[in-house]
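thoughts on these C-alpha cells:
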Amino acid sequence: MKKANQILFSCITAAALASCAAGGQGSAGGEVTGVGGSSWAEPTPYGMVLVDRGSMKVGVGKPDSVWNLQANARGISVDGFWMDETEITNGKYKQFVLWVRDSIIRERLADPAYGGNEDFKIEEDREGNPVTPHLNWNKAIPWRNPNEDELRAIESVYKTNPITGVRELDADQLNYRYEVYNHTEAARRRNRLDPKRREYNTDRPTPTTVPTISKDTAYINDEGEIIRQTISRPLSGEYDFLNTYIVNVYPDTTAWVNDFENAYNEPYVRMYFSHGGYSDYPVVGVSWEQANAFANWRTDFLKRSLGKEGVYIEPYRLPTEAEWEYAARAGVDENMYPWDGDLTMSDDKGCFYANFKPMEGNYVKDGHVITSRVGTYAPNDFGLYDMAGNVSEWTSTAFTESVGKLTSDLNPEYRYNAAEEDPYKMKRKIIRGGSWKDVAHNVRSDLRMWEYQNEQRSYIGFRCVRTQIGFAKGQKQNKKR
C-alpha cells in the first residue's frame, strides 16, 4: 500500500510537466503524449485596454486630389497588444522625472563624499554574499530633519534661479541610463556565434569571416555632457547586442515659445509641466528618445513591484506604426478617423469628436485653445481616447519615403537606430494622429507624418503598448465520416 501511494504521489507531482500515462516523463518508452509548460493569465495592465489581433487595410484608401493624396492602402495583420487608453499625462511622466531625481539623491547619500550611508545601496544579500550593487528603494530619503551631509546630497540636485531666486530642479542632472538587448539582431542567422550555423546550404563552405556588428554606447564626460557613440567591431559575444543609452528626461518646456514665432506663450513655459492643474493633460516637449526611456523605466518599475528574480513580462514600448493605425481606426478599413464617417463633429448636436484647429485662427471653437485634458472626448470602438487630435504621437517606426514597401504584411515594422554621425534625415521617426494645432484633414488616422527623433515639440506626445501574452483558440474542423 505504501508503495502504491508513492507511485500516486509521483504521478501527481509530475502532472505539471507531463502525463503519467505510458510514454510520459520518466517512462522508458511508449506513446508520445507531449509535455506541458507553465502558463499564466495576464492581468490587465493599469490604464490600458486590450486590442485584439486583427487585420485591416492601412494607409489612404481613396485618392484626394485636393490634398495630393494617392491611394496606397495595403492589407496587414497585427497580433494582440495592450495600449494606453489615453496619452501619457504630465502626472505620469512627472513620476518618471521624480524617480530619476530620487535615484540620484540615493546614489549620493551612499557616496562617502556625502556621508556614505551604506543603507542606501545594497552590495550583498542577506547571507553576506556579494551582489551587483543597486539602490535600496526601501530606505526613505530624509526629506525632513536631514543631517548636514544628507542635506548637501538632497540640495545637490537643485539650483537657485539667478533671476527669480526660486529653488528649482537642476534639469541638466536628470539623466536616465538604461540598457536594451537587441533581440532582432542577435537572432539573425548572419550574427550567430557558431559559424557552422550561419550557412545551411551544404553546397557552400562554412563562413570564415567574423560578422561586424554595430552597438550603441554612452557615457558622461568630465564636463557632465552625455556622449553617445556607435561602435562597429567584429562580433565577439552576446554583449555585442547590448546597447547602452543615457537620456536627459526633463521635457523641453521652451517648446511652447520655439514652436510659435511672435506669440505670447510664456505662461505655458512656466506652468504647463509644473502646475498641478495640468497633471491630467498630455505631456509634450518629449522627444522620441525620451519616450523610449520612459517605456524602459516603466517596464523596470513594474518588475520591481513583482519582487521576483527572473520574472518575465513583455516590455512596455512605443507602438509600431501599424499597431497605432489599426488601433486608431478600430480595425475598420472604411474609417478615416477613429470614428465612423468623414466628419469631425456630429450632425445633430454639432459636438466635436476631437481636439484640433477647426478654423483658421480659431483654436477655441472645439472648446480648447491648446491641449485638452486626456479623455475629454468619447473613445473609439476599442475604448481608446484622443487617437485623433490633442497631441500627435510617437511610434517606434523609422521614416523613409518607401517605408510602406519595405515592411512585411505580418506585424509590419521598420527600425533604424541612427548613429550619431548619420545624416540627420536618417533620424526621422513616424508620428501619427495630428494635434491640437492641426486642421481636420491632418488628424486623419490614415495619414503618415514624421519628426526628427531628438526634436521636442509642444504638440507631440506619446502612449505605450505591451504585447499581449495570449494564444489564439482557432477553430477545429469536424471530420466527416
Notes: The radius of gyration is 27 Å. The chain is about 20% helix and 20% strand. The CA atoms of residues 154 and 180 lie 30 Å apart.
